[in-house]
Sequence to fold (86 residues):
Amino acid sequence: MSTGTKDFLLALQITFNNFIAPMIAVLMLLGLIYFFWDELALVLKVISRIISLGFLMVAWFIFVLTDGKKVANKRVKGIIDDGNSK
Fold:
């Protein structure tokens, strides 16, 4: 092979490795996100509710430590009722 051919192949390999391959990977990832959008939305909604429940449990525990269990149950029930009325 001549030097010109080797240089061309090296330039082609560098172009593919640095530009085309990452572009293909990004396009594939975007395609998967588009294809599974409904499932991803459901998973994110479930994760959000689990995190909210965790914060509610921490709030209840703080209320129990400061005011007692009966008051904590009333306060948390009020928080839940306010959240359900929206």
Notes: The helical segments are 3-35, 37-67, 69-84. The chain has two domains: 1-35, 36-86. The chain has a mean pLDDT of 87. The CA atoms of residues 7 and 29 lie 32 Å apart.
